[in-house]
Amino acid sequence: MSRHPLAIAALLLIVAAPAPAVADTHGVPFPRGSRLADPARPDGPYLSGRGFRDTVEHIRRHLVGHGLRHEAVPVYRRPGVTVARFLSRDPSSPWSAIHVFTAANRTYLLVVPGPPGPAAPAPQPSTKARTP
Predict the structure, then answer these.
(1) Could you say which of 67, 87, 94, 95 has the lowest number of CB atoms within 10 Å?
(2) What pLDDT does residue 11 have?
(3) How many CB atoms neighbour CB 20 within 10 A?
(4) Whole-model pTM?
């Protein structure tokens, strides 16, 4: 019998806890169970919690259901990878493209951020004469 049952229980809870789920990225909700593929790269790509077809359908339903203007590029295959892409047609969208792809029997999601908002105007040089 261990002398520290509380410490062992706490350690088991920490080890057994799942990785935090990703709610959405740039306003795009991911399927339940999606997570960062590499925690060292917080900008993605993400591993989907579903298979390729279900992930593509999840993204498509979100875009159509919210009336977001987009272009769905037909699914295409290259050796070792299958890709579906959604391109934003709304200039104010926080994302410009969503890529869903499979590689090595895993489904990944990558959201390309949209262009930054308008920059603040540059300050104008002063017209006052300098006095020593």
Answers:
(1) 67
(2) 43
(3) 9
(4) 0.69
